[in-house]
User: What shape does this take?
Amino acid sequence: MALFKLKPIAPIDFKTFARPSSPNIYFVCPAGFSAAEADLKAPIFNKPLAVLIDTLVNIVQSMPRVTEITVNSGNTAQLSYVQRTALMGYPDIITIEFIGLDENRSTLAMYSRSQYGYYDIGTNKRRITAWLSLLKSTLADPN
Assistant: This one.
């Protein structure tokens, strides 16, 4: 049993999303996709949406201490995960929305945040940039 319980998680509407004031988050999205300022502009992949989803899901599920959370996100292709820290088991939540641009191109929005504490010493940024790096190298053709 985890010492730090998982707080309730709601689906995110990235279009109207407002960044919290705390620095314990990292947010990636395509230009113009969200009202919130992104920390990093999301890459565009020359792959169909289904390929992007399958590839990233496989990457995320291979990460240590990651479990999928069921969050009803309506009609969007949105998934949420919890990854607990190695030492203390703090839960960090990662929500990913997959975005089809056309038949052969896709991108995503990713929001990683800590549920406990105010600072994260860069953990959320390192996680998302590592996952994106693996995604880019696996798909091998982002713009």
